[in-house]
Amino acid sequence: MGIAALLRAAGVGVGDEVVVPAFGNVEVAEAVVQVGALPTFADIDPVTYCLDPSAVEAAVTPRTAGVVVVHRFGRSADIERLHEFGQRRGLLVLQQGESEAPYDETAQRRERAAYLDAKLRGVRTPDGGDGHTYQQYVVRVPGNGRPDRDAFARAIRARGVECRVPVKTPVHRLPEFRRCVSLPETERAAGETLALPVDASLTRREMQRIVSACNALGGPIVVGSTAAFGV
Questions:
Q1: Ramachandran region of residue 4, left (φ > 0), alpha (ψ -120 to 50) or beta?
Q2: Which of 8, 29, 74, 172 lies 20 to 30 A from 51 at CA?
């Protein structure tokens, strides 16, 4: 059952507000609109890229009927804290997850992620805590004197590395959902994040190409896992 159907089944409708993330898929905000409610945006945790429970609490008003939590990139939101808050305030808390890969594939993605953690320089590698499954391997490319994210992406694509910007425009900056709201972590993540390949099918040579392309741009060493991928 989709988010709109779940909201409708819970009686959420016209006059209600639903807290959603702006960092990610516009479909969640659209589902809220479909039932006649108003999406309100809360900021994310900069480590998990999921809704920050403290930001959710700050976004709640007397009209708030629910919260839609989206798990991102293989990391989970602090759903226990969000459920506890929802119970205290009488709010519906829904979750939208990512399709889970088979165990073997997840293990191989983690192996490749550990290799990148250990080898990459000049980017901030993802925090692997809380059972990260690396549906996407998302790094940060700050623009403080080194190439910014978009320049970095162009440069490594020119070296044969496929990469993608996971969230090009936060939902609260889209014309149909534009809000005057302060979401500093969402804005920062939208400007700095880049998803590098971490597919289970990648060979050792392909992984080495990713590292070589990224490290050719320079920057300080980023300390990560010491695990290696076949080297």
A1: alpha
A2: 8
Q: Is 42 exposed, middle or buried (0-12, 13-18, 19+ CB in 10 A)?
A: buried
- DSSP letter at 176 equals G
Q: Which residue from 61, 57, 7, 65 is spatially nearest to 32, judged by alpha carbons? A: 7
Give Cα separations from 120 to 158, 197, 221 (angstroms): 18, 13, 7
What is residue 194's three-state secondary structure? strand
Q: What is the DSSP string of 19-64?
A: EEESSS-HHHHHHHHHTT-EEEEE-B-TTT-SB-HHHHHHH--TTE
Return d(Cα 118, Cα 227) in angstroms, integer.
Answer: 7
Tokens at residue 162, please?
């496929």
Size of the chain, expressed as the number of residues it contains: 231
Per the listing, tokens 């594939």 go with: 105
- What are the distances in angstroms from CA 110 to CA 44, 66, 132, 227? 24, 34, 8, 10
The model's pLDDT over 161-185, given as tens digits with 9 standing for 90+, comes to 999 999 999 999 999 998 889 999 9
Residues 126-147 as b or e (16 or more Cβ within 10 Å = b):
bebeeebbbbbbbbbbbeeeeb
DSSP secondary structure letter of residue 195: E
Q: pTM for the whole thing?
A: 0.89
Which residue's entry shows tokens 């007397």?
A: 62
Q: Is 206 exposed, middle or buried (0-12, 13-18, 19+ CB in 10 A)?
A: middle
Q: Residue 46: which of 85, 20, 79, 77 has the closest Cα?
A: 77
Joined together, the tokens standing for residue 78 give 């602090």
Residues 206-224: tens digit of each pLDDT: 999 999 999 998 644 333 3
